[in-house]
Structures
1.
Amino acid sequence: MDRRHFLKGAASLGLGASLLPYLKVLPASAATSETAVVVFGGTINSLDIHRSGTNRDSYQVAINCYDRLVTFGTKTLDDGSLSYDYDNVQPELAESWEISGDGTVMTFFLRKGATFWDGKPVTAHDVKWSFDRSVSLGGFPTVQMKAGRLESPEQFEVVDEHTFRITLPFSSKLALPDLATPIPVVINSEVARAHATEADPWATEYLHRNPAGSGAYKVARWDAGQQLVYERNEDWKGGALPGYQRVILREVPSQATRRALLERGSITAAHNIPNKDAKELASRPDIQVVSSPIENCIYCLCPNLDFEPFKDKRVRQAIAWAVPYERIFEQAAYGLGVPTWGGSKTVDDIAWPRRSPYSTNLDKARALLAETGYKDGFTVPLSFNLSHADWAEPAALLIQQSLAQIGIEVTIEKIPGANWRTIALVEKRLPLHLENFGGWLNTPDYYFYWAYIKGNLFNSSNYNNAEMAKLVDDTLDMAMDHPQYAPNVKRMIELAQEDVPRIPLWQPTLNVALTNGANGYQFWFHRQMDIRSLKPA
């Protein structure tokens, strides 16, 4: 046996051994009428979406275990796959609602048969307590609610047991769709209050490990860092009963192991698979790969303006001209997604995401850097989330090589996914980092609200521009057909391109693979697996 074949055989044996811990806990046939097994590469760090530091992978608990007043409908895309429909708000816990003529009062009428998992009826008192909690705890949930002008407990009123009213300070186009995001979940307030303390009035410690919802699935077991096991709520009233009685959500850090589980048919679905695997597996007749462009989302390189060299926008622009965009798209994205470089400097429409005016031009990069106090370069760490290593690591290496050619020495720092949100987004202390953000509400101004306003969670660059802040504040609630809406958004885009606190790399796709004939997968803006729609063959 030659060396190449020996190494290939050894690798196969190693992979087989790495599969054993997963195969031991998986059912013999994943895709049955009873049990589904879904694997993903991230980690769930909390079962409470309102808790400070809860990461993105944990959001799917809120989606599958809790109800919201409303949800979004479903549409079929050109390739035949299913997606949520932003323009179609549908009932979930509320069977109907009324909005006043001036758009400032929304009254919701709850389903009278809806109950929590313990059998207690869902009432407007539970809705109010849950909404009060979401706007009071601070952090990401509170800012998300504020995007729809839901800011104070005084806005929320119990009319009667099954009627709940929201009063807005003024009409906002985002108010109703904001209620369909994962944040405004309805919690069993009696259970929560029973576990609240003087130091923890919102029961964050209890709900961190013990959901108390009325949603389609209950949490039967959570082994942190390993798996989450769901059991179907047979009394769910918020929609059609899910297709699977039991779902095992397994955390499998190794993408090679996730792929092997797919190819063996040992699982039902793999969520957020790397682009390389998506391209290679798409041709297999026994695996269905769904690749959905992520609306309002960009993978980007973020220079932090708290780091001295990046206070000068010419340094940021120099880096934007030095990024090897095409090589990153080929080697990190494998050609899946939408390019976001090489566009016109003139902003003549409000399309978002869009191509920036930057492309790879090392001469321009060097000339700009020579105008600054850093003509001899500097050293900076470039950080990325290990949970996103499939694209972030090759991108980081290519950026490191390219920036070296203009005198900037880059060291690469890999941060575990469980720590990323706190370090990058809450503390915002990474000088240069790779990030991705997709706005949940699909308008350009909503993206700028989250990613370009000082203090907001996804502004990990610490960008602060008074003109941008005023434009966003003036525009966020404005109807999209308002005569000032398009001019305001165009100016936001111009500022973003000139100041480059975020350097767009590409608009990504979300890739999900299904085996054994499982179907019903639906893409959602929050990029988490909604297991409620999955069905066995």
2.
Amino acid sequence: MSTHVSPLAGKPAPASLLVDVSKLLAAYGDLRPDPSVPAQRVAFGTSGHRGSSFERSFNEWHVLAISQAICEYRKGKGIDGPLFIGFDTHALSQPAFESALEVLAANGVQTLIARRGEFTPTPVISHAILTYNEKRNAGLADGIVITPSHNPPDNGGFKYNPPNGGPADTDITGWIQQRANALLEGGLKEVKRVPFEQARRADTTREHDYREAYIGDLANVVDFDVIRSAGVHMGVDPLGGAGVHYWAPIAERYKLDLTVVSDEVDPQFGFMTVDWDGKIRMDPSSSYAMQRLIGLKDQYDVAFACDTDHDRHGIVTRSSGLMAPNHYLSVLIDYLFRNRPDWKADAGVGKTVVSTALIDRVAKRLGRTLNEVPVGFKWFVDGLFDGSLGFGGEESAGASFLRHNGTVWTTDKDGIVPALLSAEITARNGRDPGELYRALVDELGEPFADRVEAPANPAQKKKLAKLSPDQVKSSELAGEKIDKVIDHAPGNDAAIGGIRVNAASGWFAARPSGTEDIYKIYAESFSDKDHLQAILKEAQQIVDTALGSA
């Protein structure tokens, strides 16, 4: 197995890569999925149902079926408050929103849509749900987020957030998925639907000022006074995403020295530099995709970007350029637990099993409990909701945190807040997060890490997800005794959908992606780069054997 880095990686996207938006939208309405074909059925991964209209994996029928299933789920569970809905800047998101609203209105669901048809970031929907439900025991709200996150421009995505504000757990998505596929198999005969214009004018459809509500509350999670008083000069690249029109109002309200690098919205995302595999992908953690902001790093004290639905962040510093997500999250955890005195004394640190072991060391030094869970932000929802977790984060640059007073902020990933916190950190410490990372590893040890990605079809992904400890025959990893092989997370004993192999000074984990047709091997060494490469080589051999390749 190997990861082939495209010769286009890091370069401006050529015209040949740009999606034909008119054909994409035509395929959304014209191509119907065949529910007898597994790849064309509704399938909720770690972040909802995703696919492309060209491949008949994200089409009008999928959205109509999922929306009807959600309406039926709400009715069955007695969820009768408003439903908050938002969508991002992917081309398929607008028609998917229209399809969903047609079903929601026909089912009599009170639906709150953004004023003036604005794009709405994922964390803003979570924030709206939680704010509405606070101190309520009945008439609870829930939400829908229409986004494929940072995935390529030809993708669409659809996610349901229940009243706890976070991504739906598998018991919910399993029910919705099963019911939606039954509706597909029945030719949508049981789907209630009205024309969009009628849905838009329905008494149950109302506009909501998402932007004002979210921005006005940010001071309860970010210390803008310290940022402003220190005069931190910031730059932000929204990457053409759903928060594109949030940043200027944030700067104006809180009187920040914040420059928006670009407010361009382009469904082809033609302004992007190409990602590692030759695809356009709005990933703020990828140095290939972040070339524009990296090139501007010396113009700002700290700069940041968010992905298309603004639930992931990328931090660019003068001292180190684009920070690896694990590096910034380690600094962020260390900072927050030292500077949020009103958080519970026993509030823990939540991380995924593929996040850096440096977080383990930071948590131990802070005297905080570490809660290690499988990949998927849904595993942090309960802890963030009740304040037992001060932080929940993923190695893919997704995280959320508590308010200053220790109460819930969002239970879904929020890319905007950690971006702004990089400025708070810089202001309070007089050093940017890159410099603070160097100080951290000088004390706790420096991890050398890499992640290998490669294409994998659904059958291969399924095989890898079932990889078990007894399939690891070796007793050593890169010359060290293997301490432990796990396929369930220590924090909650849930299956991790792959394995992780631990040794004294290094580890690797292998798992299929829940959102794309790729698989990933994560590896880390606290020795050196040669040791890291040895770990990766042995990990690749194990995965290749599991997949039946040479």
3.
Amino acid sequence: MHTSVSTPATSRRAVLGGAAALAAAGYVATPASASARGGAHHPRGRITVLGTTDLHGHVYNWDYFKDAEYDDRNSNDVGLAKVKTLIDAVRAERTGARQAMLTLDAGDTIQGTPLAYYYARIDPIDDDTEHPMATAMNLVGYDAAALGNHEFNYGIPLLRTFEGQLNFPLLGANAVDPATKRPVFKPYVIKKLAIGKNRHVKVGILGLTNPGIAIWDKANVEGKVEFPGLVEQAKIFVPELKKKGCDIVIVAAHSGADTSSSYGDALPYPENASTLLAEQVPHIDAILVGHAHVEIADRKVTNKKTGREVLLCEPLYWGMRLAVMDLEIEHVPTHRGRNGHKVKAHWKVTGATSQVLNSNTVDPDPEIASAVQSAHDTVIDYVNSVIGTSTEELSAARAVVEDVPIIDFVNFVQADAVKSAIAETGSAADAALPVLSIAAPFNREATFPAGDVTVRDVAGLYIYDNTLLAVKVTGADVKAYLEYSARYFQQVSGTGPFTMDEVTNAKTDTAPNGTPDYNFDSVAGLDAPLTYDIDLAQPAGSRITGLAYGGVEVLDDMEFAMAVNNYRQSGGGGFPAVSTAEVVYNAQVEIRQLIIDWVTDHGTIDPADFASVDWRLVSDGEPITVS
């Protein structure tokens, strides 16, 4: 059993509570008079929306890959246990008859940590086993949560089980039945909140998820659920909420604020559409934004039809921040409008502000910490179990600028699995195809130590729950794929030396903040090396030179079987060819588990068995130096 201290019961920095904790977290109090004033016929009040998003299975401030308390260069803490402490502090501070509160989440809750993975794949939740995130979120007391795209990673049956364990609804107005086009999850919930004596305000909470699910989780949702655009569905359901008498409409949207799509034009609906929602759909008052993993403390977007401002707030991710959104409201009595028509009494928003609070200033909530402790300890024992040994240390630190053995290992395991499977169940023609494999450097901090290798080491290397497929591609497809992947690099002149930051993470139209590491794929051969240079002196699209398989030039009409993950094969990242190529293998085996099983079965990882230098960075044909 694992014997180190596994409970991050007290943060490195967290010693405060109550009002002092809020002040340290960056909280700015709104004077009580701002919501209490108002004439007898025009009562005022305030609705506070507390929001989280992209929790990704984080309950504790714990890094399961490092087996240590979480930390990063910005001194962030993570986990719902800490957020709950902030939530309780705000709830305690925001009291009074004219104050109402809601607590919402904007999606991506059940994927992202070994804790989440364990209760989806190793010991799946059922009637007797509750998901740790359900336990924690129920203790928080959410009013509703939007579906995130990662909610679908483990299939709809497990998602439905998770849904049944929650004390609040999962909302997805744009997760619809392919036949009826009606939502298969609740599209919204209506809350009747007390504001003052004998007065109530009706608040509609609309949940919207990401259209990209149709691509990213195609295997789990195809033919079962469709995902139209956020704007398109909001134009249906916001008017429905208003017809049902909602004074205020709040959206929890698992879609970033700044309009963009990682899948290009593969879908007619943008991935990140929260600003479009605010601009194009009248009568939305505020949007809790998710998916993009950025911090937006307070953003106002003007609706193009009404001219009214819509409040947007995104509280970073993993529980690093808590959103506090304040809507000042005023009661409007029944009156005659400009056209003489009777206007019923209603509440309206007269002002809106938001802020985000930093969870690294507080201790974890003891109730959540206690409730999830057993599950946490079980997972720590699991991830620290030894499955084999490595003959030397293997690191991914330089995987973005050179061919390293630890990425070669991923490609080797994937390609070997594909070759064996096709030989057993494929056609003779497919079995004769040379096998290639793609892999990306998901985590530069990943390392296999010399000596014992644990589940945690593998999980730190392959951090996503992708499954393995193989597709039939041509030599021309391979060249196009590599050219697309090489967009990851910035164009430079000369041979350096350069820093990694000077040559990697190039900004593109689809990645304005820089191409992420997970969208840089290298391609390797199994029985013979696939070798090529990436010439950074050339513009994107003209960088791959010397492409050869087994020392022979790769011609356009050559055919290969190429191992890919389901994210790529379903169109993730917009890579060419693979999403439309013939699938020759698809057993829906998770790649991380495949690697764990390989190490368990073989016992020893020896780079001499699989590693070779297949690609390099050059400038006008000369190797470059990257420090």
